[in-house]
Amino acid sequence: xxxxxxxxxxxxxxxxxxxxxxxxxxxxxxxxxxxxxxxxxxxxxxxxxxxxxxxxxxxxxxxxxxxxxxxxxxxxxxxxxxxxxxxxxxxxxxxxxxxxxxxxxxxxxxxxxxxxxxxxxxxxxxxxxxxxxxx
Length: 135
What we know:
Elements: H1 7-34, H2 40-64, H3 70-92, H4 97-110, H5 113-121
Helix pairs in contact: 1-2, 1-4, 2-3, 3-4
C-alpha cells in the first residue's frame, strides 16, 4: 500500500463490515430457529442476505488493504440500502433511519477528498477491476 489509510476509508469499511455482519447473524439465526416453518421466499430472503454479506465483508477488507475497486461496490450497496430503507420507512417507522443514517455516513466518508485520493493513489493500471488513470 503506497499511502497511509485515511480515517474515512477505515470508517466506511467498519460501518459496512458491522452492518453486513449483523445482517448475516440475523439471517443465520432466522434460518436456524425457523427453518421448518419457513416458506420458499422467506428462505430465499435469508439466503440473499447471506450472499450480500459474503460479498460486502471481503470487499470492505479489500478496500482496507488498498484496492480501488471496492469503493464502488460499497457505495452502490449503501446507496441501495438508503433507497430500500426509504421505501420501507412506512413499515419500519423510525427504525429505518438507523441503517439509512449509517449508510449515508458511509457514503459521505467514501466521498471525502481523502478517500478519493487514497483510491486514486492505489489504482493498479491493468488490474481487472481497477481502471486506468484518466487522461
